[in-house]
Write a structure and sequence with these properties.
Layout lengths: L1 H16 L10 E2 L2 E2 L9 E6 L5 E5 L12 H13 L8 E3 L2 H4 L13 E3 H11 L2 H12 L2 H15 L21 H14 L4 H4 L3 E4 L4 E4 L4 H4 L3 E9 L3 E10 L2 E10 L2 H18 E5 L9 E5 L5 E5 L5 E5 L7 E5 L3 E3 L7 E9 L2 E10 L8 H14 L1
Parallel strand pairs: 13-17
Antiparallel strand pairs: 1-2, 3-4, 3-11, 5-6, 7-8, 9-10, 10-11, 12-15, 13-14, 14-19, 16-18, 18-19
Helix pairs in contact: 2-5, 2-7, 4-5, 5-6
């Protein structure tokens, strides 16, 4: 009993010191009612990765240090450069004196030492190596200050209004701040646009320097939580203990952000609580195509008489658990179309509704372009027909 009392008192002191403001019970955010439980951290957020919808939030817009979660943006810019063909995973990344001087978690790079970009990314994702993150930032941006400018431009592009990056690794620095909402936005963009990152974030152990340097993932949920896919941990004196945790079960992908926990145990406990809540209470429902959906529509004044339709594929909607049974899909389509029609042009919508009303609308498009019939192309069609005879 006395142990529980001491633990409760310590928790109260920790929360007071962090100026924690609990989420309002019953708060409505988007389509969903927020739960009234609390998690032991300064700020937090739970979102659906596919839709971006918020399922839980606590002090979500409070500006706070985010430690090594910063590296998610460093990795995002690196993957963008890879996909644009500017760099390759086999490229050699040099180590500068500046990268060597990074403190905190590291792989003890030496000036002049060389690793491939693939090895550096593994060091960042698995061991959260600050020296590797700065070396990669210099490799991609030319220098860390230039790279930090790139990070801030990308943050603005993503709508991260409470974020300012001062460095590429997340070490405490005046003005280097973000928020739970912005971290969720950044994490979602990383996972949605660069899913190959999961090849790295799901590595439990690895090694460098021919086995001399051992890497063990800082995200202990990889061994404890079913469906975990990443993403990044972080810890500094000012930020506290943080994580942005991504997981997938039965087609539902969630991202839980925990900032400013008092310990690693509480960080993982909070992330687990958030993910458990999401998986227990929500599911992704496929958007069905109605059985009477036409495959084509008549076209007026077109050189083709019919336009083949393309329906949305792989779309889904987030619903409360069991809510998929009551979904209804309807079509918004005209009786006929009028040329000219461009390939991919939206001509109608597939509308998904539930008990709470319309849940989503997806465009129905035409598969091919259909020019308007004119005197000139009529003659061309007639000429080609005569040739075939």
């Amino acid at each position: 009993m006395w142990k529980k009392r001491i633990l409760a008192m310590a928790m109260a002191v920790m929360l007071a010191a962090m100026n924690t403001i609990s989420v309002c019970a019953g708060e409505q955010v988007g389509r969903f009612q927020m739960p009234d439980f609390d998690v032991p951290c300064r700020s937090a957020m739970l979102i659906c990765q596919d839709t971006g919808e918020v399922l839980y939030q606590k002090n979500a817009d409070q500006q706070v240090p985010i430690a090594s979660i910063t590296k998610v943006m460093t990795l995002m810019l690196t993957f963008e450069a890879l996909e644009q063909g500017k760099i390759k995973l086999t490229d050699t990344v040099p180590v500068s004196q500046h990268a060597y001087n990074m403190g905190g978690s590291q792989i003890w790079l030496e000036p002049g030492e060389q690793f491939t970009l693939d090895e550096m990314i593994r060091a960042i994702c698995v061991a959260s190596a600050n020296d590797a993150a700065v070396a990669v930032a210099e490799f991609v941006g030319g220098s860390e200050p230039v790279f930090a400018d790139m990070m801030n431009r990308k943050a603005q592009e993503l709508g991260m209004t409470n974020t300012t990056f001062k460095n590429a690794c997340g070490l405490d620095e005046e003005g280097h701040l973000s928020s739970a909402r912005d971290v969720a936005t950044m994490s979602r963009a990383m996972l949605q646009n660069h899913p190959d990152i999961m090849h790295y974030t799901t590595i439990w152990t690895d090694s460098l320097r021919n086995g001399e340097t051992q890497l063990v993932n800082t995200n202990k949920l990889l061994k404890r939580y079913e469906g975990i896919t990443g993403l990044k941990t972080g810890t500094t004196g000012k930020a506290g203990v943080c994580i942005t945790a991504s997981a997938e079960r039965n087609g539902l992908k969630l991202i839980a952000v925990v900032l400013g926990a008092a310990s690693g145990a509480e960080r993982f406990e909070a992330a687990t609580t958030l993910l458990d809540y999401g998986f227990a209470n929500y599911e992704m429902a496929a958007c069905p195509t109605p059985e009477n959906a036409p495959q084509s529509l008549d076209v007026k004044r077109g050189i083709e008489k019919q336009a083949v339709l393309e329906y949305p594929k792989g779309e889904g909607v987030l619903v409360p658990k069991g809510g998929a049974k009551g979904l209804k899909a309807e079509l918004e389509l005209p009786e006929q179309l009028t040329a000219p029609l461009a390939k991919g042009q939206t001509v109608g919508y597939l509308v998904l509704s539930g008990e709470e009303g319309v849940l989503g609308k997806w465009p129905i498009t035409v598969k091919s372009s259909i020019p308007e019939i004119t005197f000139k192309n009529s003659l061309e069609i007639l000429y080609k027909s005569l040739i075939r005879l």
